[in-house]
């Protein structure tokens, strides 16, 4: 039986003092993330998290830990991910949790866990934090997929411990957290060996796991801890992180949540249930933000770009998990544009400072989270808007942008140095590059434009979709929203997933495009979720029953 | 109600004298493919093919026509695709046909129509045949997707005719024949304009269609035919096709079909219904094949590589549409390897001859058809096999290859110049490059190897998966087949779709990966195919009813 997936209002707010499933410890440049899942502390009570299996709650803590290492511990240069349990590293996503979850929850659960693993790879690629998976026991499915997100995978050689992707042979689904893609595209395992590996429930261990490129080394139990420490130290030595900096504490966001709104300091999300829309508003800082490293660090998590995008990130997750019927999001940005322009100048000038670097990458990841959120986004650009520079990326991330061309009221948008290359999408291109695939000259043209764009300039530059005048504005916007609201939510999800990511594909787009789309398909098939499907049948008596027709 | 999708044994065998829906005419270097669908000649009788809408039967004729232009009319350098009906170009795939088809049929129908459109693009890219879509009336959905496959799209300006993708607004599904991908990735339409275009049922016409890059030109009705002829002539002038060559007639394959087998001259497919497996055997030529252009042309469609791969192509389509419960295909290649080696030498030496070029590209497309067939393929390489050069691509296309290492019987495989670059996969890489993404040096190493590989050499070179000895062979092969047969067919389909295409993505892999996978998902959703879903509700009274939850 499918149950409502989660409590009415799931929250992503946590910190190490509240972790139930992970122990995060620090030893100079090396942090250790020890997995020790509490069986009885799942988000629902219809499953137990045995064998370090995980649910969304476990992954929320993992995502939080990786984020805090980046912001709160600039001295950390390598992270060891391991298990604190005996003979088990991680058994993967909890099968009974999946079996009891709605389709929408399964899909969003996988999307979030994918984003968490990509955040690990982002920390490695952009932040000088390398990850070592120290596999000290059973490592199956999502457990191995977590290891795949690390830079190095070390496997204990105890004659027993294997890595495996048992989803296909045991559950009739795919390893849905990037496993198949990372096996052939990141670790470049030969496709026939990947085929064997992905179909044998018991997995592969020992020398063969190294030969097949599934792990980097197998190490006898006696020398395992020492080898892990050595590899972590060697990877840490490659880092450019500062040795003496003070971390920035990420304090709780504490939004005010009412039935129809969630309000933060610089962000609010207001629901209109009748129209199935939400208004997402970002507000510029009221006063000048700090512009020197010392002042920025002193401002800490209240530095506006970090504060605003942390709030935006949280609002997007709230929307995904708690407001599934809201189909269209109206995006607005308001306040004093001069402050936004000034912040962009600071971000650009101070980008080499470790904390500013982290802020920029956090903004980048939040924008990607928006790209990957399966709701329609329409930007409404009205007088006194602050869609400028970094905030104009929000408009670029929207499916459409409407800009009011008022005869009497000035209304402008602007670009900044931050639109050049700071916020690549999952496809590796900037939003401007993706937008102008057919007219690449327009990217440089737009970036070279002096000062803000009025509606007609913005239209000519291709930066907005439409510029209705004040007579047409209300009707045109209302009609666009009404028309959108009448369309099949599934067709929109598929359509947007195809139109948003033109251009090159990357490991990341392959995971969200090819792999996730196939997994979503399988997550609906009777062979997986029917009464006798493999996912439902797991752990019960008897074998699953399949319709043998190949599609 | 879903009906059994097609007659028990659908055939892909046709020729222009039997076409019911297209008129193929020739005028020197220009061929015209005129669409004139017979309403009452659908493959099933529960729908009528109104307004040049199409079903699989219409597309089988289109695929046949494109193929015949390549082989039978080497003088053709440009093809005009247009409609012979008044005020309608093509209304797309027939909705009542889709609504009444099983999920598996819908998916395989879309796969075939995608392959047909990619064959048009292949003819343009590799064969010197350019395509002009002359849109002389209503052009919706699959009609516009057909135009998108052409090199140029000319739209009549009659004040009425628009191009449109009404699938999302009217049917709650995606334009599933490459439409979304080609709009943003081939024609590089800006994503926000593509969003608008894909959600307005009435489409876009006139100047806006050009400005949005949806078509190349709009032309007044009075000058339309002349403009089309001019563009076709201009494109034809870029071609390198021979002016005076004689075409090669493609005669019927005439397989012998019994309940459990389909047998051609060089290919046979034998079904084992209990094990849900099929044995696909390719046989080498019995005697020496011609090796000079004159002799090859004189041999015509009986030239072994063309004959064998036409048969293989037909067998794969038979498998897809008529044998849906057969999960694993055992691939064998038998006969006199010397003949296969000699044929490869001829193909390589004569590759610049127009007919040999066509043969090589046909082999390439057939191998891609195999890559994209959602069944498991295991190559069994036994003594007297002919897995050499071109035929070794078959083993490389398989999910696994088992090679018998017999102490007394010689068993070898071999590569040839044809493995270098002649048969790229959909991802743009050769099968050897894809196989050795992690160890690129092995590609050159394998190609530089002198003479054939015995089992241990093949294993060391990474060209096969396993080399069991004669004591283990029977058990190991039997066990692999039994294990495969026990797995969820859906999970295998998704798994293989992810493992087979490592490396770069192309327009082609995006269509089959991202777009098709999402379409398959939507094709199962109650919002599309439920009793009140949009696809089922189309043409009935009342609006579809949606579950508004976004996934």
Instruction: Please tally the β strands of chain A and state the result.
Output: 19
Oligomeric status of the shown chains?
Answer: homodimer
| Low-confidence spans of chain A | 1-7
Distance between the termini of chain A: 26 Å
Largest sheet: number of strands, sense, barrel closure of chain A: 7 strands, mixed
Determine the most extensive contact between two protein chains: A-B, 93 and 93 residues
Name the beta content range of chain A. Answer: 15-25%
Shape annotation of chain A: globular
Would you tell me the structural class of the helices and strands of chain A? Answer: alpha/beta
Number of helix segments of chain A?
23
| Major beta sheet, strand line-up of chain A | 13-14-15-16-17-18-19
> What is the share of helical residues of chain A?
40-55%
**Radius of gyration of chain A over all CA atoms, rounded:** 24 Å
Mean pLDDT of chain A: 96
What report would you give on this structure?
- The structure is a homodimer of 551-residue chains.
- Chain A is an alpha/beta fold and 551 residues long.
- Chain A contains 23 helices and 19 strands.
- In chain A, strands 13-14-15-16-17-18-19 form a 7-stranded mixed β-sheet, with helices on both faces.
- In chain A, helix 3 packs antiparallel against helix 21 (507-522).
- The two termini of chain A are 26 Å apart.
- Chains A and B meet through helix 3, helix 5, helix 6, helix 7 and helix 20 of A and helix 3, helix 5, helix 6, helix 7 and helix 20 of B.
């Amino acid at each position: 039986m499918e149950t409502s997936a989660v409590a009415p209002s799931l929250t992503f707010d946590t910190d190490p003092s509240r972790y139930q499933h992970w122990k995060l410890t620090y030893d100079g440049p090396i942090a250790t993330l020890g997995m020790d899942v509490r069986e009885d502390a799942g988000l629902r009570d219809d499953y137990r998290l045995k064998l370090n299996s995980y649910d969304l709650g476990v992954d929320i803590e993992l995502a939080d830990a990786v984020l805090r290492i980046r912001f709160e511990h600039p001295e950390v240069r390598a992270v060891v991910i391991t298990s604190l349990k005996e003979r088990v590293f991680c058994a993967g996503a909890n099968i009974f949790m999946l079996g009891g979850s709605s389709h929408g929850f399964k899909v969003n659960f996988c999307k979030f866990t994918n984003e968490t693993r990509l955040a690990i790879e982002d920390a490695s690629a952009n932040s000088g934090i390398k990850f070592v998976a120290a596999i000290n026991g059973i490592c199956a499915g999502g457990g191995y997929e977590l290891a795949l997100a690390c830079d190095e995978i070390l496997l204990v050689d105890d004659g027993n411990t294997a890595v495996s992707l048992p989803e296909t042979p045991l559950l009739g689904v795919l390893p849905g957290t990037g496993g198949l893609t990372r096996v052939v595209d990141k670790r470049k395992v030969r496709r026939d060996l990947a085929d064997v590996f992905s179909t044998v429930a018991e997995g592969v261990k020992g020398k063969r796991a190294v030969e097949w490129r599934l792990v980097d080394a197998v190490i006898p139990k006696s020398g395992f801890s020492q080898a892990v420490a050595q590899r972590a130290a060697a990877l840490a030595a490659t880092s450019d992180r500062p040795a003496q900096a003070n971390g920035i504490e990420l304090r709780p966001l504490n939004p005010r949540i009412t039935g129809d709104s969630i309000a933060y300091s610089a962000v609010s999300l207001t629901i209109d249930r009748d129209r199935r829309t939400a208004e997402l508003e970002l507000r510029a800082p009221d006063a000048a933000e700090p512009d020197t490293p010392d002042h920025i660090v002193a401002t800490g998590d209240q530095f506006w770009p970090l504060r605003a995008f942390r709030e935006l990130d949280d609002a997007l997750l709230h929307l995904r998990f708690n407001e599934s019927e809201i189909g269209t999001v109206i995006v607005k940005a308001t306040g004093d544009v001069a402050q936004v322009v000034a912040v962009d100048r600071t971000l650009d000038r101070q980008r080499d400072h470790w904390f500013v670097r982290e802020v920029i990458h956090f903004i980048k990841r939040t924008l990607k989270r928006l790209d990957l959120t399966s709701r329609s986004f329409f930007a409404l650009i009205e007088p006194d808007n602050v869609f400028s520079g970094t905030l104009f990326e929000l408009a670029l991330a929207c499916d459409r942008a409407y800009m009011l061309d008022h005869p009497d009221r000035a209304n402008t948008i602007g670009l900044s140095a931050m639109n050049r290359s700071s916020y690549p999408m999952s496809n590796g291109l900037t939003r401007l590059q993706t937008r102008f695939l057919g007219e690449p000259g327009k990217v440089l043209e737009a970036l070279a434009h002096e000062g803000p764009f009025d509606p007609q300039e913005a239209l000519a530059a291709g930066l907005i979709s439409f510029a209705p005048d004040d007579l047409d504005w209300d009707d045109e916007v209302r009609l666009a929203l009404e028309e959108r609201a009448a369309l099949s939510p599934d067709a929109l999800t598929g359509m947007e997933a195809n139109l948003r990511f033109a251009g090159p594909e990357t490991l990341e787009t392959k995971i969200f495009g090819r792999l996730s789309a196939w997994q979503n398909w399988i997550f609906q098939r009777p062979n997986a979720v029917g009464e006798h499907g493999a996912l439902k049948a797991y752990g019960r008596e008897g074998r699953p029953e399949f319709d043998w027709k190949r599609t």
